[in-house]
Amino acid sequence: MKALLVDARSPLSTPPEPLFRDRMTTPLADPVDGLAEIVRQVRGERSLQRVVLSIPGLVDQANGVVIRSTNIPSLDGCHLGERLGGLLGVPVDVVNDGHAAAVAEATWGAGAGSDDSFVLALGTGIAGAHVVDGTVVPGAHGSAGELGHITVEPDGALCSCGRRGCLETIIGAPALRTAWNSAGGEGGPRSLLAAFGAGEARAQGIVFHAASALAEALLTLCALVDPGRIVVGGGLAQAPHALVTLAEGLVGERATFHRVPPIVPATLGGWAGANGCVLLGLQAG
Ligand SMILES: [Zn+2]
After folding, report:
1. What is stated as this protein's family in its record (predicted)?
2. Ligand 1 centre and the CA of 107: distance in Å?
């Protein structure tokens, strides 16, 4: 877990200088009690106005409920906002971690200067969020932006979602690892991209195939959403940038009527989600 504490009077224009910033481990077995204890440690003697918590998984933000958590299954169905708020005596907001990171990138990171960004995270899965005027456009059911499940090869490999040929089955980190290992390569996507950069022949086809699939998905994105900027982050984008650069070139070549926006790397790195929580907390007052 990452924890950031900022002065509630900080301006919204730039990321505030944190009063506290560190990685934390929960000292207690119960996750809610553990979170409360972490907040108490971070707070120290200061008076707290608000806690914003970002969780990987499906979240009912309006009610502070964790519907399904990928990494902490014991939180599934938990009324986290209410329970943690009761323990700490302050309002607690619960948000999706991808949305928090996207808001931060769009406002303080690579999207700064554009009021319309689509922020994409490449990793084990592929998450995306359309951020307009500093707010995620969530869709009618809160599930917009699932770029990883756009079909790019209708007869392709089976995806975790139950369909075939989703973008994730080609450029998700596990898919890249499998393709690389099948070609005799060792290690995961980072080693694949390093080998690509070094000109290794067996890496070329895999990376080109992945970049081509990403380019198709980005063209679909441009056709549907017409974003002002596309920001690409996540673990894979932080690795050698070849995949994104290659995809950007292919998007340019293949575009017809599409208005292709700048495609830029994310700049906030692993602290984007925590920064997004800060931003949402400051916006909430
Ligand atoms: Zn899928």
Report:
1. Belongs to the ROK (NagC/XylR) family.
2. 29
Interval between CA 279 and ligand 1 midpoint (Å): 31
What is the Å distance from ligand 1's center to 175 Cα? 12
53 in a structural domain: yes
SS3 235: helix
Q: Residue 105 domain-assigned?
A: no
Query: Exposure of 93 by Cβ count < 10 A (0-12 exposed, 13-18 middle, 19+ buried)?
Result: buried
Write out pLDDT tens, residues 252-270.
Answer: 999 999 999 999 989 998 8
| Shared domain check, 275 and 263 | no
What's the one-letter identity of residue 260? V
CA 40 to ligand 1 center in whole angstroms: 40
If pLDDT is split at 50, 70 and 90, which confidence band does 28 have? confident
Instruction: Using pLDDT thresholds of 50, 70 and 90, give the confidence band for residue 239.
Output: low
The answer for residues whose C-beta is within 8 angstroms of residue 177's C-beta and 6 or more apart is: 187, 188, 189, 192
Q: What is the pLDDT of residue 241?
A: 72
Measured in Å, residue 113 CA sits from the centre of ligand 1 at: 32
Residues 168 and 241 in one domain: yes
pLDDT tens-digit readout, 53-110: 999 888 899 999 999 887 788 899 999 999 999 999 999 999 988 899 999 999 999 9
Q: Is residue 72 part of a domain?
A: yes
145 CA to centre of ligand 1 in angstroms: 13
Residue 167 CA to ligand 1 centre (angstroms): 7
CA of 151 to the centre of ligand 1 (A): 8
Q: Which residues, other chains included, contact 103 with Cβ-Cβ below 8 Å and sequence gap of 6+?
A: 129, 131, 134, 135, 136, 276, 279, 280
Name beta bridge partners: 117. Answer: 131, 229
- Give me ligand 1 centre to Cα 159, in Å: 5
Residue range of the domain that includes 195 = 113-267
